[in-house]
Amino acid sequence: MSLLRQDVTTHDWVIFAPERVRRPHDWKKSEHDSEAPGASQEGCPFCPGNESRTGPEIYAVRGGSARDTPGWSVRVVANNFPALRIEEDHRRSEQRLLFRAMGGCGAHEVIIESPDHERSLADQPVDQVERLLQTLRFRYIDLLEDHRFQAIVIFRNHGELAGTSLRHPHCQLIATPVVPQLLRIKHQVATEFFDQTGDCLYCRLLLEELREPDRVVVENAEFAAIVPFASRLPFEVWILPKHHQASFAGVDPQHLGPLAEILQSVLLRLHRGLDNPAYNLTFNTAPRGDENKAYFLWHVQILPRLTTSAGFELGSGMSINTVLPEVAAKFLRNVAI
Amino acid sequence: MSLLRQDVTTHDWVIFAPERVRRPHDWKKSEHDSEAPGASQEGCPFCPGNESRTGPEIYAVRGGSARDTPGWSVRVVANNFPALRIEEDHRRSEQRLLFRAMGGCGAHEVIIESPDHERSLADQPVDQVERLLQTLRFRYIDLLEDHRFQAIVIFRNHGELAGTSLRHPHCQLIATPVVPQLLRIKHQVATEFFDQTGDCLYCRLLLEELREPDRVVVENAEFAAIVPFASRLPFEVWILPKHHQASFAGVDPQHLGPLAEILQSVLLRLHRGLDNPAYNLTFNTAPRGDENKAYFLWHVQILPRLTTSAGFELGSGMSINTVLPEVAAKFLRNVAI
Q: What domains can be seen in chain A, in order of their start residue?
């Protein structure tokens, strides 16, 4: 059973999921497994043939085979150690001034990217990446039907330094019953910009970046990948759509092909140029109710984990980046793929 | 030469310090040293006898020996690979709407905690910890004299997972020419609370925690150490003063003894209870101009690095914590020290 508590000093919510402590990579060094489960194909719960080892199948792209059997190309299951659950209460259980809490209501799904245990997203054929994106969009839209969920966070962890606990390539999705403060802050900043200029901050930013393309990594008709001007991390890349759309729910299904193409191109450049670095990938998208706003643009962030955040970063929230974005962008542009 | 750039989507500033890429733990895996420099005592720039290998000595606690020679008990030097420098320009060099930048003006100092290469802070005698805290306070107050510096971040990295690059125990201090957004947000939240209730949010929080001491780890006459109600990390501990004071600059020097005592007690509990975990320690204190405000309380945060933040945390800013604060506090209370 999980719950949420609000940090009264920042207004941020924290998810407490004590049951997840049974997972690998947890707090007590002596309890660490020497090898993550699923490191080998045989024991992997995400490999075809092992369907019974996952949570119930929520969705799959398959050619006619039965549910919870092999024959799928993308498969969505409930996380076995969920941070949040649809069964939990979403009402605020405690309403004391300094100690606000609520039930751990939400959803936590795993999207298994392909039956292939070893092939990472960078090496998948573009049409398989597109099937994955179609699945993510489908799950995103489906979960929005539950009005208790305020935000849906899609993410991908690649490599141990990025927090992966299972090797078989997968994405995850967590639907939260509160709007994360970071999202609120980004929306406040973008709203203020819109009120002052009449423009979507992100669309305007993309226009400027394309005009002087020092920080552009790659682009196609629908998307551009840039290393942002004030990237927090070395080789951080954002993929932005060229057509305004606040929510990933509103993306034109026709654009998922071009998104797959540019995403794969960026991941391959990172993989080849930086020796398969660990990275996190996240979708930034509008919270419930802001899907049709003129002031936010959904986008994908790719965050390589080449450095360790330390006391300065944790204490101040500021980052120290050792690679200039123009240098990073040029490097990635020049990787042969 | 370093510089700062503002992220227009969050208003946060990012420090770019391309020269720091020569440090260990930098971005390209193949450039990683197999062993951090200073892993052995012989090559350690912070050990007595090697004073010439550090930046110029800024301050030292010594019994009469000459500057930049052995005989010190705490020594402060400029960081050899500084994120910010006092020589840089602090004016905003670029004022384009979407691309704000400024020179990397600031200070970056290293506070060598003792001549002992191996003895970590948890194992130091309390009077040595007190000398360290006196030194930190002295440097903090001295740097505030430079009116270009808006905030001073004191921090400590313990262990590789916490970003340490040199083994010899040391603290660091970075003075920034901008107020970090995280600090602004905390101040906004605390100001709003003060406007509504007339109380300092942190003082009120501490009172409540002491009334029902489930989350208290240890306390003395001047300070209390608690695991906060909505801690972001397992076994996170805050040390809060019992007397209101917004800035570390204003701490009564008589209180540094009790602070040393409680700090050492907390670090020893972590060390013994959790098998010497990596952790970051940071001082939260008011930015320039807010030193005498009634609504903020300086405090120390100790952030164990037992888990890896992943895509959900980076994408949403929210945390998933697997250990309930009450469980963590009880565990730490019961560690025999």
A: 3-25+40-180 (3.30.428.10), 182-333 (3.30.428.10)
